[in-house]
Every structure is written in C-alpha cells, then in structure tokens.
Amino acid sequence: MGAEGQAGPLQRGGEPGGLRPARARGARARRRDRRDGTCRGRLFLGAPRPLRLPSLRPAGREDARLPGRLGLPARARLHPARLDVSRFELTRRHALALTAAGALASCARRSAADAPEGLLRVAIANEPDSLDPLKGQFASSALLYKQLHAPLTEYSPTGGLAPGLADGWRSRDGQVWTFRLNPGLVWSDGTPLTAQDVVWTARRAVDPRTGFADLGDFFAVENAKAALAGEAAPETIGVEAPDLHTVIFRLDQPVGLFPVFMREFYPLPRHAVEANPDRWTRAENWVGAGPYVLESQSALSYRLVRNPSFHAASSVSIPAVRVEVVEDAATRTRLFRAGDLDLADQPPPEQIGFLKEQIGERMKSFEAPILSYLKINHARPALADVRVRQALSLAIDRAFLADQFFDGEASPTETVIPSEAPAAPADLDTARTLLAAAGYESGTPLRLSLRTTSGGRERLAVAIADDLSRIGVEIELLATYPVDMFQAVDAGEFDLALSRFDRGLKSDPNFMLQPFGPEGSADDGGWRGPVREAFDALMNQARATINAEMRSTLYHEAERLLLAQQAIIPLLHERAFWMVSDRVTGVRGEVQPMLWRDLGLAG
C-alpha cells in the first residue's frame, strides 16, 4: 500500500542538483545514532578522517541553552565528540552544486513574478528509496506516489475517503469487497487500465520476489500472508476480476475500513513493468495512471508533468512540478526565503518560532500523525529485560527535547496514540533502581549503541544519550545516512535506534498503532512472547471491528500492552511544517499540501 514513511525514518536528504555525499543508492534508509555517555561517546558518520567538535555544553552548567542555532541541550558536561566524515566525499559536481546552492541561498528574496510560469518548485528532505509502491518505504517515496500513481480509492481534499480508480465499492459483511472501476481508464501510454491490472498488482504485492516491504494494510486479504511467506502461490490470494471493470477482494476476516486502506494501494501497469522489470520506474520507461507522469530525473531531481490520461485530468491545475532533494533543512529554508522554492517540508525544528516571525503566513503548521520514538532490539540480552527498557524510558526528559529541539512545537509523549495526558517528568531515582535490580550498577555499567540518521536528528540523539548517561548508561552514538540505518536495523545490528514515522494523511489517531502490529513497517525490534501474542490478537480484532468506538477501545487496550512491556520508547508527537509561497493556492488549513493535483499557482 505504498510507503507511509519511515522517515527519520522519518527520513529520509542533499542539495539541489545532486548535492549529497556519494553512496550506494536504492537501498532502504535508516538512521544511526551517536554516543555520549557523560559524553564519552564518538559520533560516526561513515569511515575515518576525524573532525574534532568543541564541547557541546559549558562545563558545570545545568539546564542552560547553548549559544547559537544548534539547539543542543546544555545540561551536563560533555567531552568533545569525534565526527567521522570520510564518507562525505564531494565530487567536483557536488562541490559546484554546493556553491550554486549557497549562491541561491544568499540571494535576496525573489518576487512571484520571477518564478517560472506553470511550474511548482518543491524541495523534499530525503531521497525516495523507490518509485515502485511495492518497494519504497520512505515518506518521501509515499509523497511522490500520490503524484505519479492512482489508487483504487483516494484521499479527498479534506483528507477523507473519495473515489479513485474505483468509482464505487460495496460489501455486505465487511469480508468480501467489490470495487467497480471507472469506465474508460487508460495508462499514460494509452493502454487500457483494467481490473486485470489490479489483480496482477495484488499478486505481485505478495510474491516474495517482488512483494511489499511492508504488508501492512494488505494483511487481511485471503492467503496474502501465506503467499508472502512462500507458503502459497500468489495466484491463490483472494483477489479476482470477474470482468474488466470489477475487482473482488476476499478477506480472512471482516475489515470495515478496507476501502480506507485502498487509498494507498496503487495498481501498476503490467505491460510496462514486465517490459523493463528493473528499470520501469525510470523516466524513459515511465507509464502511470496518476495526475502526473515522470518526464525526467537526475540524481536528486525529478520533473513531473501533467498526465492528460489521468481519469480526473480536468481537475489538475498545475502543468509541471520540479522536485529537488535538499537534505539539509537550513539550506531548504534559505532557498525558500530566496524565492527559489514554492513548497518545502521539514524546516529546522529548532527555528520554527524564528521562521514564523520572519515569513509569517508562509509557514504552515498541520496536525500530523508523526511519532518520534526509540526502537529497541529485544534480541540483545540486556534489552530483553523489561526493567532495563523501563529504566531507559524513565531517564528521558521529553519536555526538554520538545522545547529545545522543536521550539515547543512538539508534544512530549509516553504513548503512541495521541493523548491529552501530559508526559511524566524524568524519574532518575526509579530508573537507577530498576537498572540496579537488573544487575547494572556503577561497577557494571550498561553499554549500548544508539543509531540515528544524519541531517539534524543526531542532535536529538546527543541529548537522549546525555539523559541516559545520568543513570550510568554509556551510549555510543552512530549517525549515518537513512539508507544505512535502515539496513542496519533490518539486519538487527543495533541496540537502540532513534526512529520516526509519519502516517501521512491518515488522520485517525488509532492508525498510529498499526506500524507496530502484525506485518507492520515498524515491527522489527524482535519483541516476542505471550504478551506480544495478546497484543497481536487485539490488533487483529481491532482491524476487523466496524464500530468506531469499539475499534478505538481495542486499539487502546493493545497499546496498554505495548507500553506496559516498554516494547518501544515513545518520545514526541510532532506537527508537520511546510513552507508555502504566496503563489501557491488551494492549501487547506487542516490538510498537508501533499496532493499537488488539488493545488494551483497564482499569477
């Protein structure tokens, strides 16, 4: 159902025109974290060539704000960290791009009249890991899917449910769903789009060779889990096309929200994929059904143009979109303020207040299903002890993180599902008692690694490591590119990982828990046992429940089990911020500007 985004997890960065350190491309992304201890830690980004950093906090100062714009906490004495930057190799092209970006960023703000007519200029924080909805996991990928692909059902302009490729759907029991496709659908190359394409895509989604990295919302399709595990043929799953315009899904159990899940199920062009299995997502081979098609692409840039074959082409106002990957938040902000961007997401969180003053209404804030949390590797002997996990959670000053790193624009939380109950303050005494009971005292300190991604999140990791050092936990911080962090976490090569996911436009708070459920994208910490089995049972029961109030009750009961075991450590519920130029129209106050077909350009 496409990626919702492990963003950096959330996520997934660089400069316009390909400015980004060279690395292998196309893998999944994840973050590594740095280490602090009282801060004995080292920060690794790649390999050698150390760069000495000054002490991050003034010696002997408690609860002081650091000077400058780093936004780093200054609560404890930190020894100099070592930053390994050898992997940051800049080619001549990268260096030129950096120079160009700096020149653009230093320019005075341009007027709307200087902007290219009919072109929406967008900067995103992370490089998409794939334009194939069955492979990508990054939030940046999910954002581009919404422009390049067409799902069975759609997000309405207000974030609700609307017709997509299907103009209607029905079910008598919530277990067998029938979708009727719009008549006359075609792919961008003029080939008819039929129900057989939907069936083929569904089977491809559960084929172990080509399937979803995250089965997620597709879990309920009959035989889907067995097929993905290689225990059944993809052709046996519960999807069929009795005619060219009708698709029937048979589920293992009733799922009242199944049409909602279909908002991120994107049928694919079988003829185009089979003609170029490994390169069908390249611009020269692109065939799609979305509001835009991929006209061209370079290392960190994509140009999209309006698709005249889109089933609702008359509703698409903007003729072309240029998408640049600009990993550095400060650079994105400078480019926007210089008038070279119309949309840019994820401004520097510690500068939100400052930017609100400087750019006023052009800084947009949205309620968003975004959670920052610590992922825990339960396979590590120390972390298999619930007392250790609880101690780590109790040591973290969440309010400090929200204030220092998000300018108060994030909510400290101990829960996954948003709650009005305030997060409790750090409790160091209880944390130390729990660690001692688990066998970790001054003579036998607990040593852990903390992975994070580069690009700003490492500063948050430094503060967390400092919090943990106050209960005697020594942390090694490992910061890498998102792709490398994803690979490390997938391989189980981590103790703790500073993670973040964004549920995109899914507004139901209960959807926040789904990534941690069976086949969820965040279910990779190795939490097992009877409590986990009870948690999974509640999650499955909730998904099958049509009554909204009863479904919410079940999700909250499942969350209680997750948190009682401290299977993860929730930290912050974040808001989504976008910088939006005056020339962009159609942005609604309650919905992030992710559906570019609904936007317009003034002037």
From TrEMBL:
GO cellular component, one term: outer membrane-bounded periplasmic space
Organism this protein belongs to: Marinicauda algicola
PANTHER family reported in the protein's UniProt record: PERIPLASMIC BINDING COMPONENT OF ABC TRANSPORTER (PTHR30290), PERIPLASMIC OLIGOPEPTIDE-BINDING PROTEIN-RELATED (PTHR30290:SF10)
Annotated ranges, domain Solute-binding protein family: 161-520
Keyword field contains Transport: yes
One term of GO molecular function: peptide transmembrane transporter activity
InterPro entries documented for this protein: Peptide/Ni-bd, SBP_5, SBP_5_dom
UniProt cross-references to Pfam families, sorted A to Z: SBP_bac_5 (PF00496)
Organism taxonomic ancestry: Bacteria, Pseudomonadati, Pseudomonadota, Alphaproteobacteria, Maricaulales
Swiss-Prot/TrEMBL keywords: Signal, Transport
Main localisation: periplasm
Coiled coil, from the record: none
Region of interest (Disordered), ranges: 1-37
Gene Ontology biological-process entries: peptide transport
Subcellular location: Periplasm
SUPFAM superfamilies xref list: Periplasmic binding protein-like II
Family statement drawn from the similarity comment of this UniProt entry: Belongs to the bacterial solute-binding protein 5 family.
The protein's name in its UniProt record: Peptide ABC transporter substrate-binding protein
